[in-house]
Amino acid sequence: MASASSCLSLLLVVAPASSASAQLSSTLYDTPCPRALATIRSAVNAAVAQEARMGASLLRLHFHDCFVQGCDASVLLAGNEQNDPPNLTLRGFNVIANIKAQVEAICKQTVSCADILAVAARDSVVALGGPSWTVPLGRRDSLKAASTSMVLQNLIPPTSSLTQLIQGYGNLGLNPTDLVALSGAHTIGQAHCPSYQDHIYNDTNINQAFAASLKANCPATGGSNVMAPLDTTTPNAFDNAYFKNLQSQKGLLHSDQELFNGGSTDNTVRNFASNPSAFSSAFVTAMIKMGNISPLTGTQGQIRTTCSAANP
Ligand code: HEM
Ligand SMILES: *[C@@H]1O[C@H](CO)[C@@H](O)[C@H](O)[C@H]1NC(C)=O
Ligand SMILES: *[C@@H]1O[C@H](CO)[C@@H](O)[C@H](O)[C@H]1NC(C)=O
């Protein structure tokens, strides 16, 4: 695993999130598939009960889906892109496949894979103690994966500066508050050593004892099988500890600590660290905005029967 993973962002101008969101509706499946949402929820709860980290992995799948080519389940298509650096550390594909099989068993070709990702992300956050929200629905599934060049070109690595992060999110219609709130997703889950190596060995804006404890397991080169929690305090709880960690220079990724490094987002970090409900409400707002990025609607795309491949 070379440069490990990254945050993805479209550099090209895309349709503003608001134009498409009007076409999504939270009650879409009430009549054609009344048990759809409960089926997704119980499957997510079972998966998270078996392994808490799966909640983090499912949340991240929805994020990666939305940031490249819009929320169209392109991230689930198995193909030539599977070795793109940002995809190497994605997981949870089997859980999504299992949910899709259960939903297909009750309602054939009705619920899209892109909507399953959005609902599973919300249910994962709730399962780990975070806020709940109503998920707008009606995203259809893409026929094709994003090309390798598009994925690589649109990559914002964890080595990015605050300016680069703000710009990348801005291109997707997400403001700096959304950036800070969404980064709060790093209150759960794990990262591999190559993703934080540079930060712990070369950056100076890191707590020295924290850096030393990470270096004990993560060597300066290699270490691709070593992992550490993104939130060192409460790795399996969706809470606001991530922001308190940033205040004590215990962000795991360079891009995490950039949010509290003397720049324009410091006050937002302080607010979310001291006020859990301010974080919850900003996170919900930003998740809904992210879930509205360039969906396929109406007659665009299709409802896949299997999430890993377009329909024959
Ligand atoms: C600038 C933005 C971001 C960057 C640079 C970034 C980067 C990363 C990296 C490098 C990892 C670890 C990958 C690995 O080494 O295994 C990671 C994990 C994760 N990211 Fe992000 N990320 C960003 C934004 C987001 C957003 C917006 C979300 C969700 C709303 C998110 C959710 C997660 C989660 C939950 C994990 C842990 C996954 C697991 O344990 O399987 N990230 N991210
Ligand atoms: C890799 O990621 C991109 C964008 O996130 C997606 O379009 C592509 O289908 C993915 N490929 C696999 C095999 O997951
Ligand atoms: C630290 O920085 C040096 C000089 O830029 C670089 O050669 C080295 O690979 C970096 N170390 C890590 C662990 O990233």
From TrEMBL:
Residues of the signal peptide: 1-22
Query: Its principal location?
Result: secreted
* Sites where the protein binds heme b: 186
Organism of provenance: Setaria italica (Foxtail millet)
User: Which cofactors is this protein said to need?
Assistant: heme b; Ca(2+)
Top-level taxon: Eukaryota
Describe the function of this protein.
Answer: Removal of H(2)O(2), oxidation of toxic reductants, biosynthesis and degradation of lignin, suberization, auxin catabolism, response to environmental stresses such as wounding, pathogen attack and oxidative stress.
Q: How is the cofactor bound?
A: Binds 1 heme b (iron(II)-protoporphyrin IX) group per subunit.
Q: Which family does it belong to?
A: Belongs to the peroxidase family. Ascorbate peroxidase subfamily. Belongs to the peroxidase family. Classical plant (class III) peroxidase subfamily.
- Any GO BP: hydrogen peroxide catabolic process
Gene name in the database record: LOC101778334
Q: Which GO terms describe its cellular component?
A: extracellular region; plant-type cell wall
Record: active site: 64
Organism phylogeny: Eukaryota, Viridiplantae, Streptophyta, Embryophyta, Tracheophyta
Name it: Peroxidase
Spell out the residues of the site Transition state stabilizer.
Answer: 60
